[in-house]
Amino acid sequence: MKIVILGTNHAGIAAANTLLDHYEGNEIVMIDRNSNMSYLGCGTAIWVGRQIEKPDELFYANPAQFEAKGAKIMTETTVTAIDFDQKEVHATTKSGENVTQNYDKLVLATGSRPIIPDIPGKELDGIHFLKLFQEGQAVDQELAKDTVKRVAVIGAGYIGTEIAEAAKRRGKEVLLFDAAKTSLASYYDEEFAQVMDENLTNHGISCHFGECATAFKGVNGRISQLVTDKATYDVDLLINCIGFTANSALASDHLETFKNGAILVNEYQQTSDPDVYAVGDVATIYSNALQEKTYIALASNAVRTGIVAGHNIGGTTLSSPGVQGSNGISIFGLHLTSTGLSLQAATRAGLKVAFSDVEDLQKAWFLHEDNDKVKIRIVYEEDSRRIVGAQLASHSEIIAGNINMFSLAIQDHLTIDQLALLDLFFLPHFNSPYNYMTMAALSAK
Ligand SMILES: Cc1cc2nc3c(=O)[nH]c(=O)nc-3n(C[C@H](O)[C@H](O)[C@H](O)COP(=O)(O)OP(=O)(O)OC[C@H]3O[C@@H](n4cnc5c(N)ncnc54)[C@H](O)[C@@H]3O)c2cc1C
Ligand SMILES: NC(=O)c1ccc[n+]([C@@H]2O[C@H](COP(=O)([O-])OP(=O)(O)OC[C@H]3O[C@@H](n4cnc5c(N)ncnc54)[C@H](O)[C@@H]3O)[C@@H](O)[C@H]2O)c1
User: Fold this and answer.
1) CB atoms within 10 A of CB 401
2) What span, in angstroms and rounded, lies between the C-alpha atoms of 25 and 19?
3) Residue 321 pLDDT grade (very low, low, confident, very high; cuts 50, 70, 90)
4) d(CA 100, ligand 2 centre) in Å
5) CATH H-level superfamily of 335-442
6) b/e string for 416-432 if b means 16 or more Cβ within 10 A?
7) Cβ pair 298, 266 in contact under 8 A
8) Is 254 marked active-site?
9) Domain 116-242 - what CATH class?
């Protein structure tokens, strides 16, 4: 069987590795327009903020590894069209040569691109996006310039908040904007996001929330001012981080799509064309919290969906268990993690939910060093008492592991009452006998 994989980043790599490592006798062709593969965008802010010196280790795979396993890999080759009737992929190489690859099964792993705000001045120099390694390099080079003193970041979601920290660590004056009332509003309720907002402000980032960019103005073709619905700011550099949109244009005329344009897939990652699979940021994903298909762009989902598609194409039926959109962020030592739905998000989705909040020390009360407070919220359905979300905030790194338990609870449809008496280990170095997770579940009304 000939399998063509379009896009060789996290989702395409996972599909290819699954097929190459577990199934024999297939011809695998991988095509990508980029010159590199496997770039971990999650490391961009860590590198740009000089928490690591170099970006070299942010790549975990290269074309030679796939060639060694028998795949044909075509980088710097842009797919221009797909003929789904003839089962052919048309592409153009770097040198301008047009090439065609036929397929028995096709994997769409073309990912996503940042959304471009449609406002005047968007074409000015000094306005950047952050997705590709090359875009990270461009921002890194800008931050090295002495002339770049004031940086505006539009969008205080994950990328915006992380790059705001990085620019601050590079000694810049940083202004962070979001249309929402707080940072991280898509992931956390106000009570949690405000902890982050305070942290950002305390570290010298100027937060402008509930404020929308309306125009970018320039001098000699380069950004010099940001105009919002509230004021005008002089800026030397602007970074847009207002979310991703699926790269589905190659297939959206032929395949069924979700309301945001992502390719609709079933639990086997199969699209409305049975010979075409879609994985990662280009595809929808099933949310166990919402109990319906949705769109969540995460590298963790890209890897899992690639594995699922690989096995199903290879011949092993494997159904995806769905996801919770579990995520985390760490800014100037403050960690926030969440899974499933916040109270706001659940209410917006029409769920009738309640919540339980607790605040306590991470470790036992008699340990006075490195024993930070933890803030926890569990969100659950009022009638069924099914857990649909959890949020944690602390300077303690231990919370990073805890959120995964809530992810499993949501996946397995556990109720808040089932969580209350769950056997959680106790050791003073890590927690208290009255664990805050237990206490949050026990105190649910
Ligand atoms: C700055 C940043 C930080 C992030 N941090 C995290 C994090 O901490 N945790 C997390 O889980 N997620 C994180 N993400 C999100 C994560 O990077 C994405 O969800 C992930 O990259 C999706 O992988 P993918 O393979 O589906 O798509 P992509 O990474 O978008 O890859 C798609 C590939 O398809 C190729 N392609 C597209 N169109 C064509 C075409 N026509 N022809 C040929 N090739 C094509 C592209 O060149 C690309 O290589 C972060 C993203 C960014 C940008
Ligand atoms: N730590 C992580 O897990 C991590 C890190 C980086 C990126 N990612 C993922 O990558 C994807 C893209 O990240 P992102 O930060 O671009 O998106 P995001 O969805 O996290 O945040 C986008 C932010 O932009 C704001 N916004 C939207 N339109 C706006 C406008 N016109 N003006 C001002 N603000 C506006 C939104 O309110 C939101 O807070 C997301 O799926 C994210 O989860 C994850």
Assistant:
1) 10
2) 10
3) very high
4) 36
5) FAD/NAD-linked reductase, C-terminal dimerisation domain (3.30.390.30)
6) beebbeeeeeeeeeebb
7) no
8) no
9) alpha beta
- Counting ligands in written order, the one closest to the CA of 79 is 1
Q: What angle do CA 13, 329, 397 make, to 5 degrees?
A: 105
- The span from the CA of 13 to the CA of 223, in Å, is 37
Pocket test for ligand 1, best of 110, 240, 296 (most atoms within 8 A of CB): 110
Tens of pLDDT, residue by residue over 30-86, are 999 999 999 999 999 999 999 999 999 999 999 999 999 999 999 999 999 999 999
Instruction: Quote the pLDDT of residue 372.
Output: 95
Q: Where are the beta strands (DSSP E) in 87-149?
A: 88-93, 98-102, 105-108, 112-114, 127-129
Token readout for 176 is: 């962070």
42 is an active site residue: yes
CA nearest to 280, candidates 307, 311, 313, 252:
307
Q: What burial letters (b/e) apply to 174-188, b meaning 16+ CB within 10 Å? A: bbbbbbbebbbbbbb
Are 287 and 346 contacting, i.e. CB atoms less than 8 angstroms apart? Answer: no
d(C-alpha 362, C-alpha 375), whole Å: 9
With a 6 Å cutoff on the Cβ, whether 161 touches ligand 1 is no
Q: Tell me how crowded residue 311 is: count the other CB atoms within 10 A of its CB.
A: 20
Which ligand 2 atom lies nearest to the CA of residue 327? 3
Per-domain residue ranges of the chain: 2-112+245-314, 116-242, 335-442
- Residues 327 and 381: their CA atoms lie apart, in Å, by 21
Same topology, domains 2-112+245-314 and 335-442? Answer is no
- What is the pLDDT, as a whole number, of residue 396? 94
Q: Please state the length of the chain.
A: 445
Ligand 2 centroid – CA 274 distance (Å)? 32
Cα four-point dihedral sign 419, 425, 431, 432: positive
- CATH of 2-112+245-314 given 3.50.50.60, 3.40.50.80, 3.10.150.10, 3.40.50.2000: 3.50.50.60
Please state whether 406 falls in left (phi above 0), alpha (psi between -120 and 50) or beta: alpha
ipTM of the complex: 0.97
Q: Which ligand is nearest to the CA of 136?
A: 1
pTM, 2 dp: 0.96
Distance 71 CA to ligand 1 centre (A): 21
Strand pairing report for 276-278 and 105-108: parallel
Helix (H) or strand (E) holding 2: strand 2-6
